[in-house]
Amino acid sequence: LAMSLSATDLIPRSITPTPREVDPGSNVSGESRSGPTCYAIGPKCLAKERFQLTVRFQTVTGLTSLIPLERELSSEGPPGFYLSCELLGSACSSKRFDNLAQHSFRADEHTVYVKSTVSILRAYFAQSTPLTVNLCYGSRSLAHALIPIDKLIRPNDRLLNESALLEGKYEVSCCQTVHYHTRTSA
Where is this region: Disordered (predicted)? Predict the structure, then answer.
């Protein structure tokens, strides 16, 4: 950026989108009767481009060695295992599953909308801590994986003609693997 950004400029602000700014067919995280979750990052005069940040929980492997099947789990909250994280302050979680040895769930996608610029998003991601994906049961977190997002947008990217994508296997506490990816697109 030709101008300098303050730390305050990189704090996501919740905004109310206009109807034409949101894709009506999308599955948006935090969508409620009042509408989807939207944020602005950067000075108001610059935060004009529209982006989507999407988290997709796809598959999880190796959970039985992480948590022994005979282990008694907390009965706090609704029963069942699930994956969760926060994307710009919006809670995202997978569907619940009961069996660690043989589980399956549809890939869950959660999207938030962001108004910003490529340069400001790059600066935001570069200073952000890794995205933490938690394996939970009931209301308790049992393990987590850290997904580094600091290089989501490459230094030479001026426009996002294609989705920026982080996809792969990420280590959960006890060396287990969560298959997960996130993408951003213009």
Answer: 13-34
CATH number for the domain whose boundaries are 11-185: 2.60.40.150
Place of tokens 């602000």: 13
- Name the burial class of residue 101, with classes exposed (0-12), middle (13-18) and buried (19+) by CB atoms within 10 angstroms of its CB: exposed
In sign, the C-alpha dihedral spanning 184, 109, 12, 147 is negative
Residue extents of the structural domains in the chain: 11-185
Between CA 40 and CA 44 the distance in angstroms is 8
Instruction: For residue 3, give both structure tokens.
Output: 């101008």
Q: What is the pLDDT of residues 34-90, one digit of tens each?
A: 456 899 999 999 988 999 888 888 777 777 777 665 556 666 778 888 889 998 888
For residue 158, the one-letter residue type is R
* Dihedral in degrees, nearest 10, Cα atoms 91, 97, 101, 107: -60
Handedness of CA 33, 83, 164, 25 (dihedral sign): negative
The tokens describing 152, both together, are: 């989501």
